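Operator note (shift B, R.M.): manual run for Helix-turn-helix transcriptional regulator requested after the automated queue skipped it. Running by hand, logging everything below so the morning shift can see what happened. Input copied straight from the record, untouched. If output looks odd, do not overwrite the archive copy; leave it for review.
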Amino acid sequence: MRHELDINLAELRRSHGVTQVDQARRMGVTQSRVSAIETAAPGSLRLSTLGSYLDALGVRAELLVRPADVERQHA
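Run finished. Output pasted below as returned.
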């Protein structure tokens, strides 16, 4: 089974003109926590954390869920 999150959070944050310190203040966390979120290993970031991060940037995300056999048909 494949799970992917194709997003560069640091790049997204910078494109909004926001520093890690600013993002941390918006989220109510430390700058080091923002850094950890942005450099998290694939598959280790919780959706709730991602949601908080994106909310702080004023960005909306959508999650696409589809049957696994759809992926196999296109492989």
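Quick read of the result: Residues 47-57 form the longest helix (11 residues). The mean pLDDT is 86.
Leaving this for review. - R.M.
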